[in-house]
From TrEMBL:
Lineage start: Eukaryota, Metazoa, Chordata, Craniata, Vertebrata
InterPro entries: RGS, RGS_sf, RGS_subdom1/3, RGS_subdomain_2
Domain of life: Eukaryota
Protein's UniProt name: RGS domain-containing protein
A Pfam family the protein falls into: RGS
GO biological process, one term: negative regulation of signal transduction
SMART domains registered for this protein in UniProt: RGS
Length: 171
């Protein structure tokens, strides 16, 4: 085993420990454990990855490790935003989303075109549940074309598959 393999193995073990701690807290039920089959399904589409609570958690952890988690954070924030029914809460949340993700030079500024940014700026004045839809579609596309393929090629995902594969062949 060369140095890179040991390094990757240590990273994988450390990452697996963190994932297992995270996932074991969510439920003690055997059926909710992360399986090799579930993990393999993540490679079918970004949608399948995001639909899995473990997939989403792993993807977020990967993006945070690369300091590129603003897109997934925005996408998730938009998903939560769409569930708001109170117009007062919608208005205050829309302004917060704009300040955090849309506004130029904002803390977690997402990569969208000027036209979409300006449209959202207008929409936030009288927000609806769909005022971030265009930006959310752009961000999803960016993740699908860039972050998701990088995740599938990452040591994080490959090590997780290897460890789950080894575990399933033992038991």
């Amino acid at each position: 085993m060369d140095r890179e393999d040991r390094k990757r193995g240590n990273f994988g073990k450390s990452f697996m420990c963190r994932l297992q701690c995270m996932f074991s807290q969510s439920s003690s039920c055997e059926s909710s454990r992360l399986t090799l089959e579930d993990t393999q399904q993540w490679s079918q589409s970004l949608e399948k990855l995001l639909d899995s609570k473990y997939g989403l958690a792993t993807f977020r952890t990967f993006l945070k490790s690369e300091y590129s988690d603003e897109n997934i954070e925005f996408w998730l924030t938009c998903e939560d935003y769409k569930k708001i029914r109170s117009s007062f809460r919608m208005s205050s949340r829309a302004k917060r989303i704009y300040e955090q993700f849309i506004k130029a030079e904002s803390p977690k500024e997402i990569n969208i075109d000027h036209q979409t940014r300006e449209q959202i700026k207008r929409n936030v004045k009288t927000p609806t549940m769909h005022c971030f839809d265009d930006a959310q579609k752009i961000v999803y596309g960016l993740m699908e074309r860039d972050s998701y393929p990088r995740f599938l090629r990452s040591d994080v995902y490959r090590t997780l598959l290897e460890n789950l594969s080894a575990d399933s062949s033992k038991g």
